[in-house]
Specification:
The protein is 42% helix and 16% strand. With 455 residues, it is of the alpha/beta class. The chain binds pyridoxal-5'-phosphate.
Length: 455
């Protein structure tokens, strides 16, 4: 195999993008407005500012195309960005595919994922507004860690509500957060009304992302000058993650490449939205037509088996409602190891792009096949991938094999969102042969969808 393209396509620090790209500026239609859960009327900016920092609320609704990245945020980005684009030569050789496979690696920081991109921005805007402390939830732990790192840097105290099952299964994740100065509670906790109500009914409740979100928001609203922060789903998060796609496009241009396929795992949609950003701009403006694929777990298939409907973003029903692909806020996902993909809903903007056919395709993949792909990748590409990221690996391998069948030398780009160093319990279960591939019945899906509000 000739190697005209280097393994690692690196950008020097001075080529770090100075602006984020807002895909909403180029969408022909926007997602339906968020609804206030008390009135069921579209939310006003004033409904959101008690929850989120004001600048983030503005970014949530703006249709401005490019937004300057503040110098203070760039200073932090320079410690771990630009992130590498890597040509997966060894994987290509192994699959014997004519396709060229590239991946954008976001796992090269202590939080272990892309989430640091938005954490830094969010804490910066809170700090600038003079906010005294912040709250958030974390499932698998990557988001809590990223926010703890950013809060430590900007010296903002942080309370993290960590889904109980992860709190128990991933003690070292909790320890990283504590090392960065965060206070970590297992959710459901006795710190909030929502948590106490759930514990009263079921003292051994193992928690969910939806419950932890409710607890974190309740705490933010009850603590003076405190705001909440969310690591996915929302427009301002996707905006910050656009840096992944902007860098990717420059890196591929450096080797005269343009992706035919752009593939990302989808939990709340932020990394995929970010990776797609510049390429989606090309699609929306008629300059190119890459094929986008969202990959989700078969155990939590919001795109492939959910409904496109208004739903709550949390279990306690205190967040605004969003029109999105959802399994219902009452849907309880089985405890698969890709904790970052266990969310009942999906970014409203990504949902709109999928509904309108710009996000071309969604695939659901089973847990065991995901880990087979993860181990294959780890052995040949030298990175132990996060379980979430491995969903994208699995789909990229499948697409590369489809290319082989058709004899097509296509270019595939996928997002490697994180490393799996903290996910060894998952690999242990795979290595022991005790990992299960859950099949969701139609009844499970129906049960979740029956919790959708009637609107
Ligand atoms: C959180 C997380 C995801 C999923 O979140 P999105 O908002 O859908 O990107 C994917 N990969 C990793 C490593 C994560 O931590």
């Amino acid at each position: 195999m000739s190697k005209k393209v280097p393994n690692r396509i690196l950008l020097t620090e001075d080529r770090i993008p100075k602006q984020w790209y807002n895909v909403r500026a180029d969408m022909p239609e926007q997602h339906e407005p968020y609804l206030n859960p008390a009135t069921m009327k579209p939310v006003a900016l004033d409904d959101l500012t008690p929850i989120f920092a004001e600048e983030l609320c503005k970014q949530e609704v703006t249709l401005e195309r490019f937004i300057d990245i503040p110098e203070e945020v760039l200073d932090y980005y320079r410690m771990f960005r630009p992130s590498p684009m890597i040509r997966a030569y060894n994987l290509e050789r192994l699959l014997d595919t004519p396709a060229r496979i590239y991946y954008k690696y976001e796992g090269n920081n202590t939080s272990g994922s892309h989430k640091l991109n938005t954490a830094v921005a969010q804490v910066y805007y809170n700090k600038k507004q003079g906010i005294d402390s912040m709250t958030t939830e974390t499932g698998a732990g990557q988001w809590g860690t990223a926010l703890a790192m950013a809060c430590a840097y900007f010296e903002v105290p942080l309370q993290v509500f960590m889904v109980r099952i992860s709190y128990d299964q991933k003690p070292y994740r909790k320890e990283v957060m504590r090392t960065y100065g965060a206070t970590v509670y297992a959710s459901p906790s006795n710190k909030t009304d929502v948590g106490r109500a759930i514990l009263a009914k079921d003292p051994h409740n193992t928690g969910s992302l939806g419950t932890a979100i409710s607890e974190a928001i309740e705490t933010a609203l009850k603590t003076p000058n405190t705001r909440y922060s969310l690591g996915s789903v929302l427009n301002h998060v996707m905006l910050h993650q656009s840096i992944i796609g902007i860098e990717s496009k420059i890196q591929l241009e450096m080797v005269d490449e343009y992706p035919d396929y752009v593939i990302g795992c989808a939990g709340g949609g932020s990394n995929l939205g970010g990776l797609m950003s510049s390429f989606m701009q090309d699609k929306l403006t008629g300059k190119a037509n890459p094929h986008f694929i969202a990959v989700e777990p078969a155990a939590c298939p919001s795109f492939t088996r959910g409904g496109y409907a208004y739903d709550f973003c949390d279990v306690g029903h205190i967040t605004p409602l969003a029109k999105m692909y959802t399994l219902g806020s009452g849907f309880i996902p089985t405890s698969i190891h890709a904790g970052g993909l266990r969310y009942h809903g999906m970014s409203p903007t990504l949902s709109k792009l999928y509904h309108d056919g710009y996000l071309d395709e969604a695939r659901a993949v089973g847990q065991k096949e995901v880990f087979e792909a993860a181990v294959l990748f780890a052995k040949h590409e030298a990175i132990l991938p996060a379980p979430e990221s491995s969903h994208a690996i699995k789909a990229a391998i499948d697409v590369a094999l489809e290319c082989k069948e058709r004899g097509e030398a296509k270019t595939i780009l996928f997002g490697l969102t994180g490393n799996g160093t903290f996910d060894l319990a998952a690999y242990e279960s795979y290595n022991d042969g005790t990992m299960e591939s859950y099949a969701l019945s139609d009844e499970d899906i129906k049960k979740g969808l029956s919790t959708l509000p009637q609107i």
